[in-house]
Structures are given as C-alpha cells and as structure tokens.
Write a structure and sequence with these properties.
By secondary structure, the protein is mostly beta strands. It contains three helices and 18 strands. About 6% of the residues have low confidence.
Length: 334
C-alpha cells in the first residue's frame, strides 16, 4: 500500500512538472526591441549628382558638376575629388545612359564614373597609365616626392551638422564593395613597394568642433579603413603624421590593422564582394589616445570631437589601372 502511494505521488509530481513546463514553453517570449540607427548621409543613392573639384591637389574651388545632363534635383551632397588627374579632368567627361546606369567617361582608356541612382551603386575607375608617362605628369613609374592621382567622393559638414561622437553608443561604418580590377602597368623590374601602390580607402576626419576649446578648428585626426592595398593581403596598422604630398596637412593619421575587421570573410580580392559593418567608436578612441601620447591634439579633449568630413575611393601612387564598385555606403549611429 505504501509503495502504491509512493508511485502515485511520484507520477503526480512528474505530471505537474510537465504541465508547468508546457505552460512556460507556451508563454510568449519577450523580444528585445530592435536597435534603431540614424544615418549621417542624406543622399545614399547619389540622385543629386556631384560637385567636381579641381585637378589641383588641395584646391577646394569647384571646377564643375556632374548633374546627369541637368536632371539632378537640388544641390549635390557629394563632391568628387580628382586631384592630380591632369589628363583626365571629369569636367570634360562625356555623359551617357545605359538603363539605370549613368556614365561619365573621359574616353575608353581614361577615368570613368558610373552611377545607378535607383540602387545607389557607384563605380570609380581610375586608369593611371593615362597619367604617368603622358603630358603634364611624371614618367612611368612614379619617382620619390612626386604626387599621385586620386579619385574619391567626399563630403564636409559644418559646425551645425557635424556629428559629436563622445555621446554615441555605436558609430558604424557600413559598406559593400567589390574591386573590379587592379592591372599593373609598371615596367618589369621597376616596382618599388615604398613608392608604388593602389589603395582603396575610406577616411573620416575627427575634428575639434568645440568653439570654446583652444584646439577648435585646427586639431583633428584622419581615421581610415584601408580595404585594399595591392602590397598586402591585409593592410597593417598605420599611425603617423600626414606627409608625402604637396598639401601635407601635418595631422595624425590612424588606420587600424584590417585583418581583425575582415577576418570573417577573408582578404579583399578582385571580383569578390565584401561587406563590412564595423563599430569604429572604440577604434577612434584608441586613435585619439595614441595621438595624445604622440603630442597631437594637445588642446583637444575627447568630448570636443566631431565627424567633420569623409572621403572614399582611390589613391594610386603607381601605374595601376583600378576600378571599384560600391553598392552600399553609410555612416550610422545611435
């Protein structure tokens, strides 16, 4: 009798436990609220076209506009920098349309910009063999101290629209890109890795925009992500003064080692689509602290810093014909 009662109580306990588990499993699961971000860019489809800089490095005067034959609405958000492209001035480019793709091209051999304003795709093609060795530029290959062609898109924010970073929880640089080509046009045996490279990079300037600070308007850092450099599988950490060009700014440049950032998908390769979304806030903080250690930003506190500008594209101090397709580009924050 006692044994039967024991079995009954044990069965009752198991049944109650199962019933409670079933009830708990059927209870609605409370999901964490979705994280919401704001965007720092206002024209990610490039529908407003582009202002175009001079071919003279560091010259901020506008030389022209790529406005899709006058159909682009309003004022451009973006500017194209074409520094030292002496033989490929985009203000002289021919405009054509193929489906949704708009094209500005100097010639079949020269520089090209392709835009898809429906999807927000942008292709930047820089053919430096039409620069090095031709009129107005240097011999092939580039020699020490000589400038090099750039093809970038960029934007600057004023004090009212620049983004303070010290009060942010996350600061995302978010991009999808594909290197379409990197053709070496340097004569055999003439490559010098200290002088010649093809680099696809994305920079922001982290500037002192606190008008009450002694460093206001003069102290800043170049912070960048070097997605492709033909000399490396993964671009290494770089932290030094901006130099080597006519318009040397003297500011501190910091680009983190890229292998940890790209590790999930491996190195950038020709024809491989890459997707990078990285919270740069801790990396910028490391850049700031290192800059202070090296006696930069002596009049700037962490709380004084804002994103004041951005640029992305090619710098090619070598004779390389290069092209990249950017299918997503944004800086987002919360």
């Amino acid at each position: 009798m006692k044994l039967t009662l024991l079995y009954f109580l044990l069965a009752f306990f198991i049944l109650c436990s199962f019933s409670k588990c079933s009830k708990d499993n059927n209870d609605p699961v409370e999901e964490e609220p979705a994280v919401s971000y704001e965007s720092l860019f206002t024209d990610t489809l490039y529908q407003k076209g582009f202002n175009v800089s001079s071919t003279q490095g560091g010259n901020s005067t506008l030389a022209g506009k790529l406005d899709y034959a006058g159909t682009a609405p309003g004022s451009p958000f973006w500017k194209i920098a074409q520094w030292y492209c002496y033989n490929n001035d985009l203000t002289e480019a021919q405009y054509s349309v193929s489906g949704e793709q708009l094209c500005y091209a100097i010639s079949n051999e020269g520089n090209k910009v392709y835009v898809d304003t429906a999807k927000g795709y942008l292709t930047l093609e820089l053919n430096t063999d039409t620069e090095y060795g031709l009129n107005g530029s240097t011999s092939n290959p580039r020699e020490s101290g000589q400038v090099w062609p750039h093809l970038l898109i960029e934007h600057n924010w004023d004090d009212a629209t620049s983004l303070k970073i010290s009060d942010k929880e996350e600061l995302l640089m978010d991009i999808s890109y594909e290197i379409l080509k990197c053709d070496d046009k340097i004569p055999a045996g003439k490559v010098d890795a200290s002088l010649h490279a093809a680099q696809f990079q994305w920079y922001i300037t982290v500037q002192n925009r606190n008008s009450s600070s002694a460093g206001y308007g003069s102290e800043y850092i170049w912070f960048g992500l070097s997605f492709f450099d033909n000399r490396y599988d993964y671009s290494p950490l770089y932290a030094a003064e901006d130099g080597g060009k006519e318009e040397n700014t003297g500011a501190f440049i910091y680009t983190p080692a890229m292998q940890p950032i790209l590790s999930d998908q491996g190195k950038t390769e020709i024809g491989k689509e890459m997707k990078v979304k990285v919270d740069i806030l801790p990396l910028v903080k490391s850049a700031y602290e290192l800059a202070r250690e090296r006696n930069y930003l002596s009049n700037t506190d962490w709380d004084d810093l804002y994103i004041g500008s951005t640029n992305i594209g090619w710098e090619v101090p070598g004779t390389y014909n290069v092209s990249v397709k950017i299918s997503k580009l944004n800086i987002r924050f919360r």
